[in-house]
Design brief:
585 residues; alpha+beta; 3 domains; five-stranded mixed beta sheet; three-stranded antiparallel beta sheet; 21 helices; 14 strands; 51% helix; globular; binds protoporphyrin IX containing FE; oxidoreductase; monooxygenase; transmembrane
Length: 585
């Protein structure tokens, strides 16, 4: 009897003990999962008291904004500091945000042993193509893979010989298709505005496709559109000349459609708190896995075509007709050196070619969309650019033809260079380069623990907003050795203005205005060894597209309802509206 009493008597005590232990464990787990701020770096105090850190604030921002780079930058403004920390991932480590051009440049260019990939780009592309070199840290595997595309020789996909001799004619042909399409739209719209967002997106994909795979026999969306619209005498028009005209659209060939749709998934990935996980999960969504399969099949078919070409040309460098030929030739050379059979249909080669398509398509399309808005919004600059082009390409002007690919690629025009650089600066196409600390490292006097993600805001101090005052003693040794870098500064008064002249300086030898790429900062292609691989191709594409458009059309201002400067961010920072009202130039 006694023993039974004892058992009953001890029951509540056991329950209390177990409850107490569980509560303590839950409390300790909760404490352990809470964001762990880095000592001394400003952060939102409320975020450090929530398991979800800054996620609610970010989601709240996304309810009313289509962009997130401004949300990141707002923390530097709020804390009045060039360095802040944010908690954008659940239970995650802090992300350090730098808003200072000189510090960003130092980290990206000179402190590459302390800061490397993974970065935001690796996270974004991981789900779509984990074999692509942009996902890898700067190790031997990365270097070997990069050699498929580029090395110190004269024959690689970003060398002047390839860009001017092979890529430029392909790009020129693609953008001339766009000009033909807009001529048809201009004719049918009778002075009304129309959206060119989709046209630019299609043409940019076709242009990069042309330089990677060649495009002669492919039925492109733009050509299909030209055929469709040129068959129409007229279309139904809205009553007012200030109302937009919509056009029927030809359907996209499946291979282009697959790339466009896969690019669209990036927006879901980038805006999620766990991009790698979401990217990986998306692969299992039936619709997306079907697109991925189609992508692999169509790239594989392009490789087979290139193999056949190579069998004819025996891999000679001067018979290269596009980037895939180059890549196969490089694989052949590597195989010969390593005494093995070439593996042309490897996952890595497919991934590299796909990576170039996506990285080179959305970015250029976005920059071009901003270019049209900026030039339509600044009629004086547009007129001056057109007049500079007419005198630079005098032969084309007098022969009443458009300048050809070679002329555009190789003729120097300082005002055109200044416009291109200023368009890229103002477009803010890619706003946040990032890196991860590979070791405990010091930034502006703060110890950043190994494994911390560091993001550098392309809209930040010295770039689009006046720089914070920073004591030079807080900067790194490499910064001082480099004398702070050789790039000039923008005056605080007009940083956000579209002003190509800021890139021109007086050359006393010729008493003329010449383009100076170091006149002031922008971070549009990142910096250092992991900066944009396709930068030279991007300049070439934009150069060709802008010359051909400004040569052919006057971009008239569009009615206010179609002229919003609002942006939307996915892989890039793109305009929500892209309208033109065209007149023959
Ligand atoms: C206006 C056009 C473009 C812009 C604004 C742009 C911008 C960028 C930026 C900001 C980065 C990250 C750099 C860093 O973290 O330091 C990047 C990386 C990259 N870009 Fe571009 N890009 C453009 C066009 C292109 C084109 C045309 C290609 C190729 C066809 C390309 C291929 C790449 C690749 C492969 C990387 C990854 C490099 C690496 O991981 O080492 N980009 N780009």
């Amino acid at each position: 009897m006694d023993s039974i009493d004892l058992t009953y008597a001890s029951l509540p005590l056991t329950v209390i003990t177990i409850t107490g232990v569980l509560s303590l464990a839950a409390f300790l787990l909760y404490k352990w999962l809470l964001p762990k701020p880095i000592h001394g770096i400003p952060c939102n105090k409320e975020a450090t008291r929530s398991l979800f850190g800054d996620i609610p604030s970010m989601l709240n921002h996304l309810k009313t904004h289509k962009t997130f780079s401004d949300w990141f930058l707002s923390h530097n403004t709020r804390h009045k500091s060039p360095i802040v920390q944010i908690f954008p991932n659940p239970f995650g480590k802090p992300v350090v945000m730098i808003s200072d051009y000189r510090e960003s440049q130092d980290i990206l260019m000179r402190r590459t042993k302390e800061f490397d990939k993974p970065d935001l780009i690796s996270d974004i592309f991981f789900g779509l193509s984990s074999e692509q070199h942009m996902v890898l840290p700067t190790n031997d595997a990365f270097r070997a893979q990069r050699k498929l595309l580029q090395d110190r020789s004269e024959a690689h996909v970003m060398a002047p010989g390839f860009l001017n001799g092979v890529a430029a004619p392909q790009l020129h042909a693609s953008f001339m298709d766009l000009i033909s399409l807009w001529r048809e739209k201009m004719r049918l719209s009778e002075g009304r505005p129309f959206s060119v967002k989709v046209d630019i997106n299609d043409a940019a994909l076709e242009a990069i496709w042309a330089s990677i795979f060649g495009i002669e026999e492919t039925a492109t969306i733009t050509r299909e559109q030209v055929t469709l619209l040129s068959s129409k005498k007229n279309i139904e028009l809205p009553p007012s000349v200030d109302l937009e005209v919509g056009f029927p659209r030809a359907s996209a060939p499946p291979e282009f459609d697959a790339i466009l749709r896969l690019t669209d998934t990036i927006e879901i990935v980038i805006k999620s708190p766990a991009p790698r996980l979401v990217g990986r999960l998306l692969r299992w969504v039936p619709r997306i896995s079907k697109l991925l399969k189609l992508r692999d099949e169509m790239i594989s078919a392009q490789i087979s075509k290139a193999e056949k070409r190579m069998a004819h040309t025996k891999g000679t460098a001067d018979k290269i007709s596009n980037a895939v030929d180059h890549v196969l030739r490089r694989e052949l050379m590597a195989a010969e050196r390593q005494n093995r059979a070439p593996h042309y249909q490897s996952k890595v080669i497919i991934a590299e070619l796909f990576g170039l398509l996506v990285a080179g398509h959305d970015t250029t399309s976005t920059a071009l969309s901003w270019a049209l808005k900026l030039l339509a919004g600044s009629q004086d600059i547009q007129r001056k650019l057109r007049s500079e082009l007419r005198s630079s390409f005098a032969a084309a002007h007098s022969q009443n033809r458009v300048p050809d690919a070679h002329e555009i690629a190789t003729t120097q025009n300082h005002y055109l260079d200044a416009c291109l650089e200023e368009i890229l600066r103002c477009a803010q196409t890619a706003t946040i380069p990032s890196r991860t600390a590979t070791t405990d490292a010091v930034i502006l006097g703060h110890v950043i623990p190994k494994g911390t993600r560091v993001m550098m805001c392309g809209l930040g101090g010295g770039l689009m907003v006046p720089p914070f005052e920073i004591d030079d003693a807080l900067r790194s040794k490499s910064y001082h050795v480099a004398g702070g870098g050789k790039v000039g500064e923008w005056g605080s008064g007009d940083m956000t203005e579209f002003k190509p002249d800021r890139w021109l300086v007086k050359d006393s030898a010729t008493d003329s205005q010449v383009f100076d790429a170091m006149a002031g900062p922008h971070l549009q292609f990142g910096a250092g060894p992991r900066s944009c691989f396709g930068r030279k191709l991007a300049y070439l594409e934009l150069r060709l597209a802008i010359v051909l458009v400004i040569w052919s059309f006057e971009l008239k201002p569009v009615p206010e309802r179609y002229a919003s400067w609002e942006a939307v961010e996915g892989l890039t920072h793109a305009p929500v509206q892209s309208y033109v009202r065209l007149v023959e130039a």
